[in-house]
Design goal:
Blueprint lengths: L8 H11 L5 E12 L2 E12 L3 E5 L6 H9 L6 E6 L2 E4 L12 E4 L11 H6 L7 H14 L15 H13 L5 E5 L7 H18 L2 E6 L2 H7 L2 E6 L2 E6 L1 H6 L4 H6 L4 E7 L3 E4 L2 E4 L14 E6 L4 E5 L7 E8 L3 E8 L4 E7 L9 E6 L7 E3 L3
Parallel strand pairs: 3-8, 3-9, 6-7, 7-8
Antiparallel strand pairs: 1-2, 1-4, 4-5, 9-10, 11-12, 11-14, 12-13, 14-20, 15-19, 16-17, 16-19, 17-18
Helix pairs in contact: 4-5, 5-6
Bound molecules: adenosine-5'-diphosphate and magnesium ion.
Length: 376
């Protein structure tokens, strides 16, 4: 893909980060590949997880997230590459440490509480080297941490979905794992609870001080809970960085499109300007553009909040509304511009326009924009 040749300053920074030997890495994957027969689920993946961070693997269904988590847990063996945990190799060409010997905790998608055990017994389950008093004390500590004091005698079927998730977290944290893995932890909760539990889970992990790797296909969830996000596509690492940097400086069209609703404006780079079908702008509009691009065609990333559409008469319009998405608080209007580019514009719910209406689209954002060399 031509995109890989793009090296803006931002992309150089983020790429070198992923290869850096972070001194405080707790877990490290190096060149990890997993094949199932002729199918490759994970390709040459190198990532290091830093002490105390919450790292989220983000990508569409089938991109290899669960497979990666299972390899970290010791439930699956890499076909190639090595996994290091606290400086010890736990998987490699000649090593394989079993799941129960890795000090890794897992929170499963369905929480997997033992239905016949009380909350207290569920939380105590992994505390095999504690005596009765120590167990009691540790369980109380964890019930406080997950904000369920005094609920130890309930059975799982007396709990709401959010409470079940709290118990599942408490149970996984009880033996003080070096690293906690969470597979799509919010997928079994309804939408409203999901948003509330995102904040709670982050708070609990941070208070426990545990290093965690979660996986999700939900970009909003990844951006809102994580210290860093690793975007995967088709088993490959596309980009890793803090949420702001992957959202604001996506290094590829895939990352740009996967994080938020992306549109692209075709533009011609002039000596001092960038010329698009909605106007000419100063070259500094494009992030990290080098001199070599003068005369080139590029695609400029525009998200709905970067643009506004204003009703116009046919003569002044630069496009027309082709689709109208109502979300409650806002409208997202899809506008086909005169040159055929389709972009999306974010409007307040009171700004009601019709499909077919001629509009003038304007750039309203005041920050520089990411761009990609035009295809073919
Ligand atoms: P994700 O969690 O991102 O949805 P997975 O890691 O589950 O993706 O799967 C990645 C790819 O590997 C998919 O194409 C899937 O079909 C394949 N895969 C996963 N597990 C197996 C398996 N046990 N046998 C064969 N193929 C598998
Ligand atoms: Mg999965």
């Amino acid at each position: 893909m031509a995109d890989s040749e793009l090296t803006t300053d931002a992309s150089v920074d983020a790429r070198s980060e992923s290869n850096a030997d972070a001194p405080d890495a707790v877990m490290e994957l190096e060149g990890v590949t997993k094949r199932y027969g002729s199918e490759t689920a994970v390709r040459d993946l190198s990532v290091s997880v830093r002490d105390g961070e919450l790292l989220t693997l983000l990508g569409p269904s089938g991109c290899g997230k669960t497979t990666t988590l299972r390899m970290l847990a010791g439930l699956e063996r890499p076909s190639e590459g090595t996994i290091t945990l606290a400086d010890d190799e736990v998987a490699g060409p000649s090593t394989y440490v079993k799941a129960e010997e890795r000090g890794v905790g897992i929170v499963f998608q369905d929480f997997a509480l033992f239905p016949h055990l009380s909350v207290r017994e569920n939380v105590a389950f992994g505390l095999t080297d504690h005596d009765a008093d120590q167990t009691e004390e540790r369980v109380d500590e964890l019930l406080d941490l997950v904000d369920m004091p005094g609920m130890g005698d309930r059975s799982p079927d007396q709990l709401s979905g959010g409470q079940q998730q709290r118990v599942a977290l408490a149970r996984s944290l009880a033996p003080e794992p070096d690293i906690l893995l969470l597979d799509e932890p919010f997928s079994n909760l309804d939408v409203r609870l999901r948003v509330e539990m995102r904040e709670e889970v982050r708070r609990i992990l941070k208070e426990a001080g545990v290093t965690a790797v979660s996986v999700t296909h939900d970009q909003e969830e990844a951006l809102s809970i994580s210290d860093r996000v690793a975007v995967l596509e088709d088993g490959r690492l596309e980009q890793i960085g803090d949420p702001e940097s992957v959202f604001e400086h996506p290094e590829s069209r895939f990352v740009a499109s996967f994080l938020g609703q992306a549109g692209f404006l075709s533009a011609r780079v002039g000596e001092t300007t960038v010329d698009t079908c909605i106007g000419s702008y100063d070259r500094t509009l494009l992030k990290g553009l080098s001199d070599g691009y003068t005369g080139a065609m590029v695609d400029v990333l525009v998200r709905p909040d970067d643009l506004r559409a204003v009703p116009a008469n046919e003569a002044n319009a630069n496009g027309a509304i082709v689709r109208r998405q109502y979300t409650g608080p806002s409208f997202i209007y899809h506008v086909e511009l005169d040159n055929g580019d389709v972009v999306r514009c974010l409007h307040n719910h009171a700004e009601d326009m019709d499909v077919g209406e001629p509009v003038t689209v304007d750039l309203v954002s005041d920050h520089s924009l990411a761009w990609y060399p035009a295809k073919g």
